[in-house]
Design a protein that fits this description.
The chain is mostly beta strands and 267 residues long. The chain has two domains: 4-35 and 141-254, Trypsin-like serine proteases (Thrombin, subunit H), CATH 2.40.10.10; 43-139 and 257-266, Beta Barrel (Thrombin, subunit H), CATH 2.40.10. Helix content is 11%, strand content 33%. The chain contains four helices and 15 strands. The chain has helices at 9-14, 16-24, 183-186, 257-266, and strands spanning 4-6, 33-34, 43-50, 53-64, 67-70, 81-85, 98-107, 123-127, 155-159, 174-177, 180-181, 200-203, 218-223, 226-237, 248-252. The model is unreliable at 9-30 (pLDDT under 50).
Length: 267
């Protein structure tokens, strides 16, 4: 069975057989470039506490002032978490950041960490207080329920993930252009095959990809002149972050609008 690599840093620390792969990965380069500061103002850094200090582990999207959307595999362990909004360089305080504790985690009820290819890699974080909306912090726009993007739709992945073998996380937020690969193509035998489900979005597969530290972050897609968050960064091939015809796979946001609305309405 094809092994998958989840793109979170904490997961690498927790899974013994994956640590060997991560330490010896041949390719972590995503070929991204530094974003214009705060061009993606809904991007958040999800951080965990260890020894009294916080460290980046995943990305996410601010979808309401008190709610963040991220990947289930980022938050299905017992961790003390906070969200940083308004950030660009995660290694220094630039005066635009807001640090907000995570009050409660809502995993999709069908998420199974032992079967990532089953899907449902999505979670909501209820924040301990609302984020303040300003020039540096905005809400991500979500697609209509059930909407599916066409092949080659323009999209960008954003994150602070690793960019070189043995290297550190990127200090600054980076972006990479990842056009959509439609489901019929991505699920064909020479691509991902049956590993990919129709509740997922494939993007890239040529010379750019997500990598460790990018999990949970948004796939920002150009729709009718504006950006919508159509994907939650989920996994790549265990053979490496940037494999030909193994595009980065995202949870398709439009498949979970009803679930998210229900959670947020009742909590």
């Amino acid at each position: 069975m094809l092994r998958l690599l989840l793109l979170t840093i904490v997961a690498a620390l927790a899974w013994g057989d994956e640590v060997q792969y991560l330490e010896n990965a041949k390719e972590r380069v995503v070929n991204g470039v530094e974003t214009k500061p705060h061009f993606w103002p809904w991007q958040i850094s999800l951080q965990y506490n260890s020894g009294g200090s916080f460290y980046h582990t995943c990305g996410g999207t601010l979808i309401r002032r008190g709610w963040v959307m991220t990947a289930a595999h980022c938050v299905d362990r017992s961790l003390t978490l906070r969200v940083v909004v308004g950030d660009h360089n995660i290694n220094r305080n630039e005066g635009t950041e807001q640090y907000i504790n995570v009050y409660r985690v809502f995993l999709h009820p069908n998420w199974n960490s032992n079967n990532v290819a089953n899907g449902y890699d999505i979670a909501l974080l209820r924040l301990s207080q609302d984020a303040t909306i300003n020039n540096y912090v905005q809400l991500g726009s979500l697609p209509n329920s059930g909407s599916v993007l066409p092949n080659n739709n323009q999209c960008w992945i954003t994150g602070w993930g690793r960019t070189m073998t043995g290297g550190q996380l990127s200090a600054v937020l980076k972006e990479a252009y990842l056009p959509v690969v439609d489901y019929n193509t991505c699920s064909s035998g020479s691509w991902w095959g049956s590993t990919v489900k129709n509740t997922m979005v494939c993007a890239g597969g040529a010379d750019k990809s997500g990598c460790q530290g990018d999990s949970g972050g948004p796939l920002n897609c150009l729709v009718n002149g504006g950006y919508q968050v159509h994907g939650v960064t989920s996994f790549v091939s265990a053979s490496g972050c940037n494999q030909y015809r193994k595009p980065t796979v995202f949870t398709r946001v439009s498949a979970y609008i009803g679930w998210m609305d229900s959670i947020m309405a009742s909590n």
